[in-house]
Amino acid sequence: MIRVEDLHRHFGGFRAVDGASLSIESGSITGLIGPNGAGKSTLFNVIAGVLPPTSGRVFMDGQDITGLPPHELFHRGLLRTFQLAHEFASMTVRENLMMVPGGQTGETIWSTWLQRARIEREEAELHKKADEVLDFLTIRHLAHEKAGNLSGGQKKLLELGRTMMVDAKVVFLDEVGAGVNRTLLGTIGDAIVRLNRERGYTFCVIEHDMDFIAKLCNPVIVMATGQVLAEGAADEIMQNEAVIEAYLGTGLKNKIKAEAEA
């Protein structure tokens, strides 16, 4: 579904992404891991059109999407969430969901005067769909809550719910577990798996919680210093010497090894 070829993104002399090449297969839940500063979020931003690449290409379903703006990628079914949730704080949870689909009739002043019946039909349909999403995510009880009052985990669930309001094909989740308690993280993980199995969503997930990654993701791609270091099943990745060194550093890796042999 997504193919990245020799992608670079430089900030002056700093090479945040430095020749990364990878593929995300349709129907997969792919994990993307690596130490802080490995280039994971920058890679997401380039794929999702938030940042232009310095060089390299990005393809979706065989079509070149390199450098397309986020709103065009949104209409193609490519969505991206962020480490910090971007909710409309003063609006309710349901209203946040109903805001997502583009091209609504009520977005223009003339339509609010001349197409009132059509607007009411669309709003009723969006209201129904939003409630279906809330039920799916088991947060119907938060429908009337201001989004700004939600906990970190609830905001992450809301962001996931917003991807369900459109025909998403592939969703990039950036540190979905950041600031989320274990119970809500389990709820988020279950929702991701259900969306993948029941609705055919393809996911790519950045996360530092290896238990969460191992439970959800296959394959797992490892980045370090802006490049792809390794790829494979989670248990293989966690035994990979190069991956261990990239995360722990040579000194700590050798210390752990010596302690294990003692």
From TrEMBL:
PROSITE patterns per the UniProt record, alphabetical: ABC_TRANSPORTER_1, ABC_TRANSPORTER_2
Keywords: ATP-binding, Nucleotide-binding, Transport
Highest rank taxon of the organism: Bacteria
Listed GO CC annotations: plasma membrane
Database matches in InterPro entries: AAA+_ATPase (IPR003593), ABC_AA/LPS_Transport (IPR051120), ABC_transporter-like_ATP-bd (IPR003439), ABC_transporter-like_CS (IPR017871), BCA_ABC_TP_C (IPR032823), P-loop_NTPase (IPR027417)
GO molecular function: ATP binding; ATP hydrolysis activity
Transmembrane regions listed in the UniProt entry: none
Record-given protein name: ABC transporter ATP-binding protein
Organism: Paracoccus methylarcula
